[in-house]
């Protein structure tokens, strides 16, 4: 197997790394403290690097790049803070890919160019109060009426909620139960009958907006139907791209924590010598470095498996589980290495630890990913309702 990156990928990787260190790192803790979204100037700089919609087709303003190349960029930005990587994530691995893969030509024409220009962000509304892991229990209803659909229901935990201009909303069409009745509508902010709940306050991922989406007799025109009822498997297949992105966010956080703790251990002395001379610290750094490398290999393998389409379900879930667990373990180790300073908000590691927890919940819990992996290993589905 060849794990080498091309010269172009290596150049892009180092360009994004330097950009992040120079332009974004100085603000990462302020964005976290103030829970503020990076402003348009920052998004414009990221767009200037060609990172927005880099995986989307060039005829819509995208970059025709493969998933691995986007993963390399997201990783470098998430190393500083996932918030910095948010726009690159949303425009390359987010629900926009459902529009690209399953939308009509006119839907692509309408939405993709604006995503590539940084003028539109698309979020996903799947989860409901009674349908998180048990997603096929969702009840948000899309009733067919003349010229469109009347949507009623509510979604929760929608990242980008209130901020994004459009939402891919998983709905139940007609009376079919379970996965059969589920499809996806793209609902634009400002549509009458569509409102937002109050903003969530999370332990981490501060600066990422997140809230309930509320639909009351909300009329959505036929032209906004992206995935028809019965297309749940297609929606999930596309969501594996997002799971690769989620795993990359976790990988970036773990890498950032490892790099920070390593530098700290070189500079901090106790009892007259640097703590990096202590075997206890060396063992923690060795363990963290090994886990981060293993996570990186799994994430890159999953990204490569997409090969212009969808990633392998098994490889995407393995990458997500391992990268999420790595980020949690490595940020915790980094905090240990830094003693009391690791716990102080003056240093980035406590933020990284808080953020790592969020990625392990978003995009499906670790337990659910493990059930998916087990299904692929056993070669059979395990009905959670049986
Ligand atoms: C930061 C953040 C961002 C998010 N962003 C979005 C978003 O943009 N859009 C969106 O739609 N959703 C989003 N979510 C929601 C997220 O996808 C759900 O929270 C997640 O899927 C879990 O659902 P739940 O919270 O209802 O937990 P539950 O489903 O109630 O699970 C509770 C616990 O039970 C376990 N469990 C459940 N069923 C089983 C089973 N069959 N076997 C074993 N264990 C089981 C779970 O693993 C978990 O430990 C976000 C969540 C967070 C925290």
What are the main properties of this structure?
about 375 residues, alpha+beta, Butyryl-Coa Dehydrogenase, subunit A, domain 1, Butyryl-CoA Dehydrogenase, subunit A, domain 2, Butyryl-CoA Dehydrogenase, subunit A, domain 3, 3 domains, eight-stranded mixed β-sheet, about 15% strand, binds flavin-adenine dinucleotide
Task: Produce a short descriptive summary.
The chain is α+β, with helices and mostly antiparallel strands and 386 residues long.
Would you give an account of this structure?
With 386 residues, the protein is α+β, with helices and mostly antiparallel strands. 51% of the residues lie in helices and 15% in strands. It has 13 helices and ten strands. Strands 1, 2, 3, 4, 5, 6, 7 and 8 form an eight-stranded mixed sheet that branches. The chain has a two-stranded antiparallel ribbon with strand order 9-10. Strand 4 and strand 5 form a beta hairpin. The model has no long low-confidence stretch (mean pLDDT 97). The chain binds flavin-adenine dinucleotide. Residues 123-127, 132-133, 157-159, 202, 205, 210, 358, 361-362, 364-365, 367-368, 371, 384 line the site of flavin-adenine dinucleotide. Flavin-adenine dinucleotide binds at residues 123-127, 132-133, 157-159, 202, 205, 210, 358, 361-362, 364-365, 367-368, 371, 384.
Helix content: 40-55%
Q: Say what the CATH topology of the largest domain is.
A: Butyryl-CoA Dehydrogenase, subunit A, domain 3
Query: Span between N and C termini?
Result: 41 Å
What is the alpha-carbon Rg in Å? Answer: 21 Å
- What's the helix-strand series? HHHHHHHEEEEEEEEHEEHHHHH
Number of strands: 10
Number of helices: 13
């Amino acid at each position: 197997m060849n794990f080498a990156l091309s010269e172009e990928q290596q150049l892009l990787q180092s360009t994004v790394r330097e950009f992040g260190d120079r332009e974004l790192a100085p603000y990462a803790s302020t964005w976290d403290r103030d829970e503020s979204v990076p402003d348009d100037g920052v998004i414009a700089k990221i767009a200037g690097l060609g990172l927005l919609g880099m995986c989307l087709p060039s005829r819509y303003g995208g970059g025709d790049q493969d998933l691995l190349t986007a993963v390399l960029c997201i990783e470098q930005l998430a190393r500083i803070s996932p918030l910095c990587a948010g726009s690159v994530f949303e425009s390359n691995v987010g629900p926009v890919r459902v529009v690209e893969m399953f939308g009509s030509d006119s839907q692509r024409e309408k939405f993709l160019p604006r995503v590539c220009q940084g003028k539109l962000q698309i979020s996903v509304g799947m989860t409901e109060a009674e349908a998180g892991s048990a997603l096929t229990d969702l009840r948000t209803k899309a009733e067919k009426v003349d010229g469109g659909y009347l949507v009623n229901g509510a979604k929760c935990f929608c990242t980008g909620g209130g901020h994004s201009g459009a939402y891919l909303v998983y709905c139940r069409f007609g009376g079919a139960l379970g996965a059969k009745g589920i499809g996806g509508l793209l609902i634009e902010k400002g549509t009458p009958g569509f409102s937002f709940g109050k903003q969530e306050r999370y332990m981490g991922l501060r600066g990422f907006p997140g809230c309930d989406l509320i639909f009351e007799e909300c009329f959505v025109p036929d032209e906004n139907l992206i995935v028809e009822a019965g297309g749940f498997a297609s929606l999930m297949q596309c969501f594996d791209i997002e799971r690769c992105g989620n795993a990359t966010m976790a990988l970036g956080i773990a890498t950032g924590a490892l790099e920070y703790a390593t530098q700290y251990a070189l500079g901090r002395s106790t009892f007259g010598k640097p703590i990096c001379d202590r075997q206890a610290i060396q063992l923690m750094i060795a363990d963290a470095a090994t886990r981060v490398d293993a996570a990186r290999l799994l994430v890159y393998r999953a990204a490569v498996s997409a090969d212009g389409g969808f990633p392998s379900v098994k490889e995407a879930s393995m990458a997500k589980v391992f990268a999420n667990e790595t980020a949690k373990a490595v940020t915790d180790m980094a905090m240990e290495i830094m003693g009391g300073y690791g716990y102080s908000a003056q240093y980035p590691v406590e933020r990284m630890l808080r953020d790592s927890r969020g990625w392990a919940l978003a995009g499906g819990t670790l337990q659910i990913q493990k059930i998916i992996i087990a299904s692929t290993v056993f070669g059979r589905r395990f009905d959670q309702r049986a």
